[in-house]
Amino acid sequence: MSSRDVVLARVRRALADVPRASGPEETAVPRDYLREHGEHPAEDTVQLLAANLADYRAIVHDIDAAGLPGLLAHLLGERGSRSVVAPAGLPPEWLAACDLEVVPDVPETTPGELDAVDSVVTGCAVAIAETGTLVLDGSPDQGRRRITLVPDHHICVVRVPEQVVASVPQALERLAPGRPLTWISGPSATSDIELDRVEGVHGPRTLEVVLMRP
């Protein structure tokens, strides 16, 4: 018996009590797994997120809303960015202190034009503490998926604590599966070739995460 036969036999056994005519949405799936590993205060969850983001080589900043424009101007200036992509729904005050070209996220922008942009600033849909993962869903403050995949530098602003959850199950409850979801765990990297880590393969080489408090 081949491995394929073994796998298919297991699938058949698992579906033995499911009527053939029923669709996936008609059969309840038991979800009795843990929704999170213990209950923790909100601040502990935020600190876990920060630690796991840093473990994935993201650069983490913590600041209040009033200080965000100044911090973004500093980060973009420190990197030497001359242009930045801004989604249509990004709060305009976030980049008010920045003296650089703001490139709108529009369908007509070509991959080459995006590649010439130095940085991108977005919000996020939800951040997962246990995995150090940011999820973008194409909302107005996040824009099209491609703007976070082509430019070499991505700054993602996370509203703390309301956008931070402990676990993947909690994140899924907030996300609409029909939206274009992008899951980001650190800067783009691969170790496929001789186990040497190479960053910037299919996304930005540098990911900076700003934890913005009220």
TrEMBL record:
Pfam families: LUD_dom (PF02589). Residues 113-212 form the LUD domain. Transmembrane segments: none annotated. PANTHER family: LACTATE UTILIZATION PROTEIN C. This is Lactate utilization protein C.
